[in-house]
Amino acid sequence: MVEPDRLIRLAHTRPTLTQHPPVRIADLYLQRGGQYILRDITANLGLSDVTAIMGPNGAGKTQLLRLIAGLGQPDSGTIKFAWPDAPEKHRIALVFQRPVLLRRSALANLTHALAQYGVTRTRRTARAMELLDFGGLTDRANIPARALSGGEQQRLTLVRALGAAPDLLLLDEPTSNLDPRSTAAIEALIQRATAQGVRVILVTHDIGQARRLAKDILFLQDGQVAEHSPAPQFFDTPTSAQAAAYLRGELYL
Amino acid sequence: MQDFTAAFRAALDLVFRMDADLMEIVGLSLLVSGAAVTLACVIGFPLGAALGAGRFAGRMPLLVLVNAAMGLPPVVVGLTLYLLLSRAGPLGPLDLLYTPTAMILAQTVLVTPIVAAITAQIVADLSEEYRDLFATMGMRRTAQAATLMWDGRFALTTAVLAGAGRALAEVGAVVIVGGNIDHVTRVMTTAIALETSRGALELALGLGLILLTLSLGINAALMGVRAAARRLSDG
Ligand SMILES: Nc1ncnc2c1ncn2[C@@H]1O[C@H](COP(=O)(O)OP(=O)(O)OP(=O)(O)O)[C@@H](O)[C@H]1O
Ligand SMILES: [Mg+2]
């Protein structure tokens, strides 16, 4: 279980982060197909090492994550980033809900990504093998990436994102196709990354996972923030009727 | 019918004896079309990549133009090039008319739109699929194009082979700018047309058989490459 005062302690150990939340979203609106699919979103994210975005299907979680990653522009509102050590230079990596892999081997997908991230040619293969090892994919190195199983593809896209050495890692349901053992492996990976200072924003439907990993939960429904609470409070005494219904396995309409 | 059977036998005989005249004609055909396809790729790959994934003013009109040019009538290309290359034409001083070089130029004009248009289609489809990934990786346009071309490499052989098929089979352009001169500019298609009209069926038939075999070979290669591509990229 997450310690109740963890958020507060974090605030003490990283004062600059509290004063300057890494991701500040203000008055955000996004329109698609003549409808607002994100409305009036204001939230400070990345204050804790793992923020979970939860909410029913179609709530707008993926669209919000895409905007944070810089894929597309909101119709109005702003997303601002601030890193205490490197306010201008920060790296965001996004792992898509549906894996996008090049038509090459698993290894070649990683060396390609590392090349884009500026890793020198001589160090790419070794680093890629490290990443494959990280993802438990060493024996899959030379298999065409698109021939890998769904879970293996998800692991590959996650380690590819880690190859970017990101400050902020955005994960869209990274374990939705994984067996329990792989899920545990990915969660361990996420924790290892956060231990190194990476901030993670995680979209998940897995309540157990959110309890295990997240320190705060942003709950979306119908494109709006229904609740943004520290994890213990969110799971034990949710303040919004929507989140309460979602946690009970019902849909609040 | 009797005539035809005899001619067919004689044709097979020519082919299996590897008759010198016949081989010279086949050799020149392969040289001219091979050079034309190579040039068409040098122009058509980058052009197609730009049309498929680039963002610049005039992209759509150019794409329409290139697609339309896939169906250029060879005789019209031949005639245009003839006017340009003939003594009185602007390129007359180059003295290229009735040379293999002129034939290569003509076929390059015919094949380039095919290579470019097919490349554009392949690159556009891949680019659609990879767009978000490229964006999150912050890739430059040139790096994107290189990635798209490499990932499309098997599909792109379709463009090459389609171009080769067109080049080897066309007669209208090469006969006008080449002139079907024996030992100089005579290729398979022009020889077939001429020999048939002269009633020399055996050479025409022999060449026809080789042409057909080449075209079958190209198609077999095409299918082989596609199967390999599927194995390697999609599993
Ligand atoms: N181009 C579009 N036109 C119309 N509606 C769109 C478009 N793109 C997205 N939407 C809608 O926006 C809503 C939010 O989509 P989004 O993918 O963000 O949901 P999500 O919260 O990630 O859901 P899930 O849990 O199923 O992944 C959905 O109802 C979707 O249908
Ligand atoms: Mg989603």
Comma- or semicolon-separated keywords:
heterodimer, A: 253 residues, alpha/beta, Rossmann fold, six-stranded mixed sheet, three-stranded antiparallel sheet, 38% helix, globular, disordered N terminus, B: 235 residues, mainly alpha, MetI-like fold, 10 helices, 81% helix, 0% strand, binds adenosine-5'-triphosphate, binds magnesium ion, ABC_perm_TupB-like (chain B), transmembrane (chain B)
Write up what this structure looks like.
The complex is a heterodimer of chains A (253) and B (235). Chain A is of the alpha/beta class and 253 residues long. Chain A has helices at residues 6-13, 15-19, 61-68, 106-116, 121-134, 150-162, 180-195, 207-213, 231-236, 241-247; strands at 23-32, 35-45, 50-54, 76-81, 92-95, 168-172, 199-203, 216-221, 224-230. In chain A, helix 4 packs across helix 5 (121-134), helix 4 (106-116) runs parallel beside helix 6 and helix 5 crosses helix 6 (150-162). Chain A is globular, with a radius of gyration of 18 Å. Residues 1-18 of chain A have low confidence and may be disordered. Chain B is mainly α and 235 residues long. The mean pLDDT of chain B is 92. The chains are: A alpha/beta (253), B mainly alpha (235). At the A-B interface, strand 5 and helix 4 of A face helix 5, helix 6 and helix 10 of B. Adenosine-5'-triphosphate is lined by residues 32-33, 37, 55, 57-63, 97 of chain A.
